[in-house]
UniProtKB/TrEMBL annotation:
This is V-type proton ATPase subunit a. Belongs to the V-ATPase 116 kDa subunit family. The keyword Repeat does not apply. It is a multi-pass membrane protein. The chain crosses the membrane at residues 398-423, 444-461, 503-525, 537-555, 575-593, 600-619, 631-655, 765-790. Essential component of the vacuolar proton pump (V-ATPase), a multimeric enzyme that catalyzes the translocation of protons across the membranes. Required for assembly and activity of the V-ATPase. InterPro entries: V-ATPase_116kDa_su, V-type_ATPase_116kDa_su_euka. Its main location: membrane. It comes from the Eukaryota. The keyword Manganese does not apply. It is found in: Membrane. Residues 665-698 are annotated as: Disordered.
Amino acid sequence: MGSMFRGEEVVLVQFFLPTSAAYSCVSQLGELGLAEFRDLNASVSAFQRRFVGDVRRCEELEKTFTFLQEEVRRAGLVLPPPEGRLLAPPPRDLLRIQEETDRLARELRDVRGNQQSLRAQLHQLQLHSAVLGQGHHLPLAAAPMDGLLERSPLLQPPGGPHQDLRVNFVAGAVKPTKAAALERLLWRACRGFLIASFRETEQQLEDPVTGEPATWMTFLISYWGEQIGQKIRKITDCFHCHVFPFVEQEEGRLGTLQQLQQQSLELQEVLGETERFLSQVLGRVQQLLPPWQVQIRKMKAVYLVLNQCSVSATHKCLIAEGWCASSDLPTLQQVLQDSSSEAGVSAVVHRIPCRDMPPTLIRTNRFTAGFQGIVDAYGVGRYQEVNPAPYTIITFPFLFAVMFGDVGHGLLMFLFALAMVLAENRPAVKAAQNEIWQTFFSGRYLLLLMGLFSIYTGFIYNECFSRATTIFPSGWSVAAMATQSGWSDAFLAEHPLLTLDPAVSGVFLGPYPFGIDPVWSLAVNHLSFLNSFKMKMSIILGVTHMTFGVVLGVFNHVHFGQWHRLLLETLPELIFLLGLFGYLVFLVIYKWLCCSASSAATAPSLLIHFINMFLFSHSPTNRSLFPGQEVVQSALVVLALATVPVLLLGTPLFLRWQHRRSLRPTGRQPEEDKSGILDSSDASVAGWGSDEEKVGCPGDREEAEFVLSEVLMHQAIHTIEFCLGCISNTASYLRLWALSLAHAQLSEVLWAMVMRVGLRMGHELGVAAVVLVPIFAAFAGLTVAILLVMEGLSAFLHALRLHWVEFQNKFYLGSGYKLSPFTFAEED
């Protein structure tokens, strides 16, 4: 089989890399992504490995890159994606990149520090200018001084207590959110022995840290007394106020204001030059940083792989081991030879025997990746196990469509998926970061087939937005019924519901060419007819799906050489499944073919026949479908019950006999042991098959002890799970019937409660046109939200469950692990 139907052959290879060419060899392997390396130094600490110093240098560079990237983002710039394919740089270029990176980081830190310092100085000058230019007017001799003079004598004695008393000023700026608290605290702390004036700046000033415009409150405080001044200074320091010197004379203040404005202009020019130089440095960072990031990440990845290699005894080469596909071995050898040609010694790669289960490699493309993801979400297949993904491409959309069958809804889903498929190569579509969009986009081909199959089943159900369409002439004739039954006007007036009897000649002309006859959409018993049809259809599809899963297990047994499982497991499973539920499918089809419309009233009940089959009884009122039916049913039940002991005891007894046979001494035992060690493909057959045969797994050097009780326990679990699962799984497929009816009824209710109401509201052309616009908008929105999204998600989850539980557990273990080759694809 090909890679899609079964994983490719994966082998364990050993690399001998010359020390001088090891870096280039691993780098080329990373570009191709062909091999998954194994860690040969698992017992060695990460800090004691050979290339730990190089890894640390790369990590230090990545920290510097993060700083540079943050500076670029802080400046409102965007790093462009790297152009072209960038290879991992040679080790000698690491010093050059490190020096240039450190120089750029140092320049950025210096320039950014100078910019912050200049902005802070400019902000101080602007605040000082705002304080001096606000025009605070305060009386020099305030009320407390007047009261003091009234209480003092007219003539002060020489050297009195108030001869040195003078008014002082404190001017500054504070944030508006702190102004009220500052003013209140000053008044209480100084007991009113001050006069304070607060005013908001007319223009907003740029904050030196955040760069955002902000409003400030300027204040001017007049006081007298040294103790009051100390309190004021302490309080303004606590509120982080900007305090500036204040000149009492008007002329002095104007001169200071002019000097501040001149200094601000000079500082703005210097700041402009600094920002222009900063933009130049950031431009160089924008140009150099993206390729450096990719190259250093690749270099670090190469050194991490080299740390997993062991050193030869002569210290002249590195030894590595890894998994790769056998088909890629020639390419691998050629790449290593080309990479090590400059070193003078060619690198060598060769296969080595393996006692471990290899990883699973299944190559996918953009079409099959979504279906393979559905299978891998259940579990990655074991090595060389049958892959369910190719069959899921057909069965999953079909089972979904059985539950979602509607031409209109399927067409909307198909067009949505088709739009994503046509736009899949656009960069904007690929770069979208919305998680929901990424989920839909990754499954675009799955949605495309789901919509296409829904259109197909919609034609079978004859439903388009819950409305039936007349593509072909109906197979029922009302005229023939009216002619032969003699319906009069009085009869029609008394009977609002009329019955079409298919036994009457000419009423039923034959089956509809494709799908359900549109006349059923007018019938009162429409739901009863669809119930019977969809329930039987679900049973047929379910038994067919499960039987196909059991048959796929045959390919696993043949591939792994487990021939005894064909007779002791697969054959009894098929007899049990087909003898009971396959017979039920036969009864459904046989009744469809043999019972005509004329004998429909006396047709036997399949449910009663199936119950009597297990009770070994007969109902006189329920006639047989064919002669000898009771004998056939009894024989099938006995045969199905007889397969249960075979399923339970067959494989354990065979393995016990095989184990005892292997313990017999023979003269060829050394040769057999040697061949078992050298031939890894033969040795892996028994160990990778199933849990019951892990006793003979070559992963253990010493032969494990055969424990019959454990094997019997595993086989008993498998037998009970299969026998009971045949019953529960068959009933589980009835969800196809239930969800199909639910989808049809929701569509009918939405049409009846929205569109039908809108179509009946206006009879005039203008009124109908105005009314139908919002009605149709509501109908479209509810259709997308309820029927497409909610019902679609429900049908998707149920189809997923049918594949994981009812289908894949018949043959698929899903206990393997993926091949994860060393590749630079994500770095690029």
